[in-house]
Design goal:
single chain, about 525 residues, alpha/beta, nine-stranded mixed sheet, four-stranded parallel sheet, 15 helices, 19 strands, about 30% helix, globular, binds xanthosine-5'-monophosphate
Length: about 525
Amino acid sequence: MNELVLIIDFGGQYKQLIARRVRECNVYCEIISYTTPLEEIRRRAPKGIILTGGPNSVYDPASPTAPAELFSLGIPVLGICYGSQLMAYKLGGDVKTAPVSEYGHTQVAIDAPDSAIFGGVSLETLTWMSHTDYIAAVPEGFRVTAHTDHCPVAAMENENQKLYAVQFHPEVSHTKEGTKMLRHFVLDVCGCGGDWEMSSFAENTIRELREKIGDNHVILGLSGGVDSSVAAALLSRAIGKQLHCVFVDHGLMRKDEGDEVEAIFGPGGMFDLNFTRVNAQERFFMQLMGESDPESKRKVIGAVFPQVFGDEARKVKGVVRYIAQGTIYPDVVESGDGKTSDVIKSHHNVGGLPIALVRELGFDEKPIEPLRMLFKDEVRKVGLELGIPAELVYRQPFPGPGLGVRIIGEITPAKVKIVQEADFIFRDELHKAGVDADLGQYFAALSNMRSVGVMGDHRTYGLAVVLRAVLTSDFMTAEAAEIPWSVLQRCMNRIINEVPGVNRVLYDITSKPPGTIELE
Ligand code: XMP
């Protein structure tokens, strides 16, 4: 990885957005904590540094800070919001607290159209502000390059030392010309080539994995989801048969999904690796017997999985040294609370194995995480790059406990079969109707409601299938999608005709909140 921009996190809520925007300029970047030692920053030799915003005031002794030497490393720095105030404060400028905050859409007047970061930007430009403190006087050697009605220094710079600061947030889309400014900074000021691409990411990562792993062997739990599949593909390209993939089929996958995973990663598939499919359906069903509470079912599935995976891991004791996992960037970066970012969510668990077992088996405690720095859509691009079929790469999110949380009440093999068939029909019809592309998540679930119906001359007393399709961008809120009536009717007809035991089909119109996306 030769060209790097480091984003120093001071607790700003938009740090991931900054990273996105920089990567959209085809420049590789990483977010690091403000506690990262200067020595480490120097060692990584970034082409540029961006300081994020943050909720604090530079005068509070408990606030995250940076040494003044950061600004004299000879590396261009762009300070954003709190980062701009920190730059001013550390270099001898004056930061003051305003009686009222400046928040929201704000017109900024550009005073220095010749500034390297404002090239081609309108003289009056709409930005997004969110601050109370402001720079009242710039440090020596700096000039004011923009202002607003309430903010005398909306931007400042020291061109000779390549230090730039903006009070507004160029990374949010409300700042109309923000991407242009960030592009100017990383390409023109920092001199990055803007040639970082997913293909070079894949190439570099494969090389680095090879160097790190050497002759050692690696175990990876493959779930059939995008992240672990792409991790497997990268590792396979790097170390081939030294990779041992374990695919635990808990019997709660969608119809045919287990076979699809095996077709891609198993013998005769697309990748050179050791593949083990553990058909653990019975083990899961046995343990789930009598469990009908959603959380207890999740707990059982969550407990049986590492047992099954652990049994496989024991078989390669002495052979395997590393565990790999498909952690991606949003898993790594904590939601902006100003603490160090570099924390993995679940430290009691490495790659799906309990840490005690990892130690017992003598595996390295630090997992190999080749996708650690990528956003989801970037992971997808790498997947396509490595030849994983688009159907898998663009697979919709699927919960870890699988159909276990889409069957209300006790799980039985017969109910799993019903929900798999109904779900298959629903997805098939939505796809044929061309309405699946915009949906966040869509699936069939099985209620525990039995009701009376008639089929021919017979009275039936069958189960009700629930169809659910939601629009969502963040999965925190969602609304039911308006599926055309004719499509829903076709699904209803097919499900009742083709899936034995079902005599009623319901469409769930509940939003989230108050509902959840899954039914349990
Ligand atoms: P809810 O149902 O809470 O779901 O609105 C939000 C998102 O999370 C997924 N989900 C899960 N994922 N284990 C998972 O790995 C779970 O237990 C689980 N429950 C819900 C759900 O599919 C949706 O994308």
